[in-house]
Amino acid sequence: MQQKIHQALDTGALDQALQLARDWTASEPQLAAAHRTLAHVLARRGDDAAALSALDQAIALAPEEAALHHERALLLVREGDAAGAHASLGQSLGLDPNHLPAYLAQARLAIAMGRLEEAGRLIRTAGRIDEGHPQLVALDGLLALRQGDHDRALALASAASRRLPDDPQVLSVMGFGYIAKGNWAFAEQAFRRVVALLPEARGLQPLLAQVVAAQDRGAEAADLMAPLLEDPATATPALLRSGGLYALHGRRTEQARQWLGRALEARPQDDLALRGLLTLWAATDARDDARDTLDALLAADPGNGRAWAARLALESPATPEAAAVLERWHAAMPGHVPALEASLFNTDRTGDPAATRAAAQRLLEAVPAHPAGLQFLVEALLPEDPDAALEQARQILARAADGAERDTVGSWIGRLLDRVGRHDQAVAQWQSLHDGHAASRSPLPALAASPEGWPPLATAAEDAPQPLLVWGAPGSGVERVVDTLAAGGGPVLADRYRPDPPRDPLQSLATGPALVEGRLAPEALVAQWAQHLPARGVAGGNVVDWLLHWDNALLLALRPHLPGGRLLVALRDPRDMLLDWLSYGAALPLKLESPDAAARWLAAVLEQVAVLQEQDLYPHAVLRLDEVINDPAALAGLVGQALGVTLPAPRGTPRRMPAGRWRAYQAALAGPFAVLAPVAMRLGYPEA
Fold this sequence. Notes:
The protein has helices at 2-10, 14-27, 32-45, 48-61, 66-75, 82-86, 89-95, 100-112, 116-129, 134-146, 150-161, 168-181, 184-197, 205-213, 218-230, 237-249, 253-266, 271-284, 287-300, 305-313, 320-332, 337-349, 353-366, 371-381, 386-399, 404-419, 423-436, 478-487, 511-516, 522-532, 555-561, 574-584, 595-615, 632-643, 670-682, and strands at 468-472, 492-493, 544-546, 566-571, 620-624. By secondary structure, the chain is mainly α. Among the domains are: 2-229, Alpha Horseshoe (Serine Threonine Protein Phosphatase 5, Tetratricopeptide repeat), CATH 1.25.40.10; 468-682, P-loop containing nucleotide triphosphate hydrolases (Rossmann fold). The longest helix has 21 residues, at 595-615.
């Protein structure tokens, strides 16, 4: 349908295009693309008010689609340009080839329809008529935004704003540019100004709410959404979902439950709404509500695989209740691969090898060479014939694609070798995986020399920021601490481990030596950390910041300039940490050249933790995860106790080697463990 409408527009058959667009919206009223296309047609005919209405309806149906908001900005034309937008574009240009408004209107339509090259040509042509026209500059900025050139978009919009400080289109381009750069506070300022200029533009509320929520103000974002969600005409499933997620983030559980429930009832396949409800149910321990809601949903929509998986997750594995849910799932969706996978994993938890083998065979009948099915057959064979099982595992490895899949299978083979007691071979297998990534990983960071003395720990003002700095060396299990804090709904910043991290000094692995050597001023570290927080989506300094690396030299800055902070250190027996790092890797991709080199570095890093503890150099808590590493509920209790809060257990945490597993490797890793033994004892762990 969309192609027919665009063909009609290209040939100038505007009446035909309008009729087709209206027919499409009538037949598929919940499809954002239909209302978006209707807006294009109405804008082409010069009916900007109706186009805005249609586009607002598209935004209500798909509020997360940035391009819709971009296109709305295109329609926010100044009154002085309305004549050009309302005129027949072809006739205008035919009568007056220098008619700038017609070029602007054509370029707007080209951008809206995704014809960016054509839009660029029209803008260049218009530039020969009036190169500095502010509307043209703003339009060029929006084109740059759509092309991904965010810096140029902001520069052009800023230039246009000097001549048109109250122009909604110019302000919108600036807002979108700031969003693209992650400058949420500046984006909020721009869009609040647009809302003030256009108080009836209700389509801007979802965008403004999104920007506010990105600054950890979920309750305020929910308030912005409330007027739209109280009106049946605008309370679309997508907006209900967005509002519900904001309310959930703002800890308004009743409001979140209402909106997310309505969203899922209207759109049962909405995975995001379902995830939001699962998070809410887990946080409030509302299992009865969860069961009743999901059972009602499945009664109305028995082919909803995601809902079945969620319903199964409410029951403990390997229980009659879980088996009953699986039986219902198979009856509703025979041969459904996720159901077969779930049966395999559930059966494996029962400890019945024969039943596990049968479940794996059923999965392989449905999907030959299914990785999980093949791996479970290997697992079942391992106790009976280790050599045959390992040979089958190596065949799976030979077929695995390079990259993550091959790494996953290779690590699994190492764990198989671990299980059958071939510890030397397991170490060699894991080391080979590290060797394969050596060229792309960072060298182990050098630690700073110990300073001659520490600056006094300042007294924090009452309104001073109180950040929680979280860190753990490789193998400590710090990732689980971060997941636990995030499950509690707090402002957890994990962006240091993502593709576009903040560029503050704490992102550098060499900051400790730079402080000691005087190449970085202590006050500059804290000032730059605070300056980057708005771009990271946080308005104040009360955040959880997951650090890449710890060096006690950082205290040269933190003691005098961030006394309200607190350091949370994840710790396990250092020998278990080395084994975990070797076998599972770490969140920070550091080069592990050999177990000996890794042990020497790890010992030096953990010596700093011992000094931190013994001298009480900074407000801190050391979380010993040894006995809770594989128990999410106990882990949540440990973290919550340290912080004086109650935290829900994170979901879906894979098992790691248990505490004390290092003892099985006393021969295979004798040298590295000898290096780690002194610091282990200093930290309170036994010598052997």
